[in-house]
Input
Amino acid sequence: MDPVSEALRTAHAPTAHEPLRAQALQFLDDFKESENSGEWAFHTLRTPSAPAEARHFALQCLASLLHSRWKGWDGPVRRQFRVAVMELVTATGAGINGEVFLRERIGLLVSGVGEKEYPPQWPEMLNDLATIWDIGGGGRGVGGGREGGATPIIIALLALRNMAEDCVDSDFNNVLSTTRRTEILRSLNTELPQVLPRLYALMARTYEGRGREEGGGGGGGGRGGGVDILKAALQTLKRFVVWIPPELLLGAAEGQGGREGGGTMSFVDVFGFLMAEESTRQDAVECLRDLGGRKYEYCEHIKVYLEKMSGAVMALIPQGEAWRSLTFGETVCQVLAGFLMANLEKWLGEEKEVLRAGTREYELLVRCLQLMAELLKLPSYRAAVALLPGWAAVLKQEKLRGLGLLEPLLPMVMTAYCDKSVKLSFDEESGSFPENPVADEEFIDLEEYLALLSTLKANAMTLMRTAAELYPTQAIDFLKERLPCLIRRFGTPESAAACTTAAATAAGAASKSAAAPASGPGTAIGAGIGVAAVAGGWVTVQSEAYRQFEGLVNPLDRILGGIPEPQQGNEVDVALVQNVGWLLTVLLEWRVTDPLLLYCHCLLLEGFKRFYRYFDRQLWTVLERLFTYMEYRDPALAGQVFPNASQLMKHLSPEAVQVRRRGSNSLTEICNTVPDIVVPFLGELCTRCRALMVKGEVSDSQRPMLIEMLVVVANAIADPVQRMTFVGELVADSEGYWESAATCQALASVPAFLQLFGVGVGEGGREGGAQGGLHMPQTAEEWDEAHDRTHALLGALNTFLGVTRRLKVPQQDDISSKDPTLAGIARVLICDSLSLEELVHINPFVPVWVRILPNLLALLRVLHGMWTPDVRRELLSHPHARHLLSLNDDEVLSRVKAGGARPPQATVGVGGNQYRKWPTWLNQIRQSAYQLLEKACHHKVIYYHPATLLAMRETVLGPLVWMDHRHVPWLIKNFLEPYIVNCPRPLFASHLPPIVGPFLSHMVVRCSVTWGGGGREGGPGGELEHLVEGGTVVLTEGLREGGREGGLSVEDYETIVDKLRREVTRAFIEALQAALALRGGMIQALVESNKAVHHQQQTAKAAHVLTIGGGGGGRDGGRDVQSQQLYHSSSAGGGGEEGGGGKGGEGEGGGEAGVNGKCPPPPCTAVKEFVDALTRFLVVDSDACAVPLFLSVIGALCWQDQHSCRRAVHVAQRMLEIGGKEPKLYSAFGLELFKELVGAVLAEQAWVLGMQNDLVALATEIYRGMVIGENGTLGGGGGGEGGREGGSAGGGGGPRVSPRRTALVACELPRQVLLGLPGLTPAIVGEMEERMLRTHQSKEQREFLKETLKIVVETRGGGKKEGRGGGKEGGGRKKCESTPVGKEESILRGGATGREVGRGGGGGGGGEGGAGGGRGRSGSMEMSELQAKLIRRGQALQAQREEVELCAASVANLFGE
Output
């Protein structure tokens, strides 16, 4: 036995020792690369007795030689290898290499040679392959002239398939270069007209001789040889049908888009014949699908394909066995849908005959539509989804309207998709769909079914809306048939129960038979099992009655919402409205008793909301019905009396509560859609709402909904005084409670506020002095009283909040409104200083704001006061009161990893699980208060209310340091963001620094402490200790002795802490983005304003050509550059001096453009002016805001969250645009920020990797702006003084000039930072600057800075040389294993070696001795020192909040050192 065979035997022996196996594998790897491996491989493959493992290895050897040795071989050797491979192909079979895997590998070998040789060195390749088809395909048996003829044919087909696949398939075309792909495809396109007829003849001979396969031999496998050839031929054709000339496949005659070589050779007919055979059906229909998905150039091709394809599919319709394969049915649907999407529009646009009844083209289109309708009867859900794009393409064709083609089919199509949209019943125990055996076969589990059902519903509803828009009569006809049918079948408990029994019997019979195509549309109705219809005929969510009505809700809503607005006097529209009215009458006559059907009834009534303006007589009946549903009770509770609504809600079933909420939501939605029609009923609505409240039938959650509904209607009141009076009366009850003595007393102090929750302070208390003297609720009555007190407060808050949400008043965001009056009022709100009296004329809620704001701030004061040290200490010392400060169960479960479990309720102690409710109640109150504060900012009243500023400083800033992390994001999003962006421009100086400066300073401290920079203050016993982990994280169990997990596992606890710190950090950075107009509500208004400016300027340019200057003195050029910048929302409104003419929108060029008449003034630019002023105030004008803003950006570089760090870089880029040219900010940008950017890049911390390029880009911008000049030059084309007046892009469209060799240095600080780094000398930095001066490309300038920083890394000992010097452990396979999968690499290091050095492992000796490890720790120490500095500076700035001078230092000295 030769050594190779012995090594193969050892490697594959199951009992071989591992050392021997490893040695054998190494020998085989070495042999595979040796010179004589090819000779051994060919000899082995020609030897019939060679074992299978030897053949497999032989093919691996040949593939390795082809890949590694081909370039080194000369022409004769290559030709010798090619000839040997082809001889191997012809010799394959007759028991030699006939296995499927081996012939696949041989086919890959042939295609690999062809991809290297064809066509230059092997022009006869296609002829050689076709010769194998001719020789092996003729004669006797399947394959051929000799034994085993099928296998060579299959290999030749596979080789051609592989080569085409590597050229055109998106998954494989990266194997070849673009040049080689183009060369191969061009040659294939030239030779295919001669080759395809030979392939056609092969398939024809094989198809005709398939009946004689039984006696045929061959490596293809006896009887299956012919089938294998046909399947291989289809798989090969599948790679060609998408791109070769269609006449070669369709058989189109010359002159009809055909060419020589076309004629009667129709592969479409071949596909049709093979579709009738079970073994080739799927491959054939896939070829047909790919061929039909092409966009044809000639209409004759479209007609030929459609005629042959539809005929082939029609012939299969009667054959039930053909449709047993769900995949085949789905693919056939894809064939039709893909063809219509690609070619219908062209066909209808160029072929007039298709629209004329009686023509061949018309009949083809009719046949296609009928075929699609027939395929809708398939029970497959995937087939229905596949047909949706085809129906959408047909419906959107305006030219088909009025021809009578679609109108008869639409009700059937809509019915079919409505049936499929009805959710199937699923049996959890058996894991099956008892009413639909086809669904059991089609879907693996419920999750897969629901995913497809969601896709089907979304697309089907879009289809129905489109049908309603274009064919409203047919859409209404569908509803007229569907709705009464469902009401007759399921409208009463008796009919639903009877249908359930019949359906169960039918489903039981159906489950015994095999899946078969549906016999017609609508078969899904009545095919299911109604699950557990309870006594009295009531249904459940699994019952068919509920699922059928719930399945009609969306179609009805889409259809009635899509019907065009009826035109007065149009007979068709009049009839349409009458039919809708008839449907509404049918729905109102339906007397429903089941709660789930009542829920559906509400939704169906809501679907008519657009048409209630035409049925005002029926409108009040609908409103009455919904009011009745709002006080629905379970039959068992009828006639019972409850002391209040909360007690009633405890006894209602979940279904009854659902009906009540749906009734109030539907009522609100209807009133919101037609408020002007509901205004006459406003008095009756108020009476009914008040009656519900007095009777105690309205829950705490329903009360705000009623109020919102009345506010929606009140928005339609034209008289502002009457509207203001109505709003005041609407909230009078809530306002009375809010201003009552009891409420004022409860909000006077934290102990008084806690009494609302039943927590009182008595003499010793019931719990004893050891428990702090706190009295806890004990009885059910005490808990009910606590619930009523807290929810009364919450109800008042939600009432105010609901009114402010629904009340339509002019706001700042209306600045981009198309209504000039509304836009004018919004501009006044933004730009002018108003009084409360003036604000009343704009907002009718202002008088209410004036009265409720003091107690709102008092509420926030006591809520925040609960976190002060004394109160916190007292509450945490009590075993039950500590729940007031804890996370509730939902907060915990939303933050822990998968597997986090709700704590067992049995361990809570006295009071059951009542104590768990306190955190939820507090969260609801806190969130409502924050949202109400946000509305006060939007309504501007918070800026004009007297004494509000001082009260907010005491309420918000005072206890901010003690607040837990989990509440800070709410406060930021609901207060800080809106407070900044809604502040009127005249009040910037008076209202922003006192609040924004200390708030930002505190956030710098908070984030720095929680990310590990606590130092002394954040250490054990320090005053900031609670911020390290985010405050109080306790749950319902008692704290474990000696531990702090509070009943959680350590992993879950750490997960919660980590998510809390990330949430607060991200909310803070996102607030900075909103303040600088990088995100939030102002962006949309800014974009709309910029579009208006752009449109105005384009219109002006069309009338009068503007001359755009090219230099620093080009004023019109400056305006044009500015308009281009404004068009991009990310940099709009920067207020910087990038324009060639001046500063932002107030530049010199902008002023003269209007004066000289060159360009008419742009439309209202108040948004941009406001954004310019706000951002400039925050960054430049106010040191109190700018200092913590800079510190926040710097701090984000060491807060270990890449999401926040990346967005902080965006903030810094925006700040640089705004104030980069301000001398007072040179130190902040050029020294502090630039130093920390460079330090973060060099430190290579984990959260920075992946965004180092962003940091380098920002550092380059700073260096270029201060040391180099804009874009590496000092002037954009002459004129103007230096680079700072030359424009950001060379002054617009002027000619570029050669860059100067010296830089106009505005600030030396960035250069000094670089010179202070190890390894950088003045010569190196000077060379970098010279290279920057030679290019205008920012990307190239970034690369220059990056290369300079690499020198620092190499100097510190973290370069490539050290990484490679670690011996065997530092390279090879070990090196790859040490680089974590999916992790980012440092841009300053060369591949994995540099990464390992940076992490202290791999090369350089590994462990702690590696240079990279020491450097990494140094970086961490630097980050910790920076965090400590940020904490000290933030505390110093925050301590100044009570002083008149809010900032002790200017931006020239950020850290005050």
In short: The first strand starts at residue 760 and ends at 761. Residues 1396 and 1402 are 5 Å apart (CA to CA). The longest helix spans residues 178-208.
